[in-house]
Amino acid sequence: MERHVTRDGVLRITDHKTGKLPETIPAYTGGGRFLQPLLYGLAAEKLLGASVESGRLFYSTQQGGYQHAVIPLTPKARQFLVRLLENIDRSIENGFLPPAPQKDACEICDYRIVCGPYEELRLARHKDRRDERLDLVTEIRAML
User: Fold this and answer.
1) Cβ neighbours of 137 (radius 10 Å)
2) Rounded to whole angstroms, how far apart are CA atoms 114 and 137?
3) Taking the CB of residue 116, how many other CB atoms lie within 10 A of it?
């Protein structure tokens, strides 16, 4: 993480990434896939006692094209993040943190060795049965 101070003393927080820029820049968290810009911004405000205007994902490699995605830390973004964190907290309180990957997510996941390579297939087999415990995950993923 790095910080950049603007002329008016406001911070912009940067998270350096090694992958590719997403096809669609998320407005907030991209369905829970891009938590860092907003979370790091709020953490920096708390730790540094300064205002943060935005979080930025900087794809700082040739593969990433040295491009960036800026996510402004607006009042609406803050409300959005609070709602998302409440859902995560409820999942933890309920003791239900399921391996419920999105399509093709297992192929790029660092934790594949923990879950195994078949979680996406396992989940697909049970699509005809609605599991209400997945509602919080579904809601997070709908939060763009």
Assistant:
1) 19
2) 19
3) 11
CB 6 within 8 A of CB 13: no
Q: According to the model, what pLDDT value does residue 37 have? A: 93
Query: What is the spatial distance between Cα 29 and Cα 36, in angstroms, rounded to a whole number?
Result: 8
Going by C-alpha positions, the residue among 81, 96, 100 that lies closest to residue 40 is 81
Domain ranges of the chain: 2-101+131-142
Angle at 79 between CA 51 and CA 131, to 5 degrees: 140
Q: Which two tokens stand for residue 59?
A: 């794809």
Which residue type does 5 have?
Answer: V
Of 52, 85, 84, 82, give the one whose Cα is nearest residue 70: 52
Shortest CA distance to 17 belongs to which of 56, 59, 65? 59
pTM summary value: 0.76
Give the tens place of pLDDT for each residue, 97-141: 877 888 888 887 788 888 877 888 877 777 766 778 788 788 877
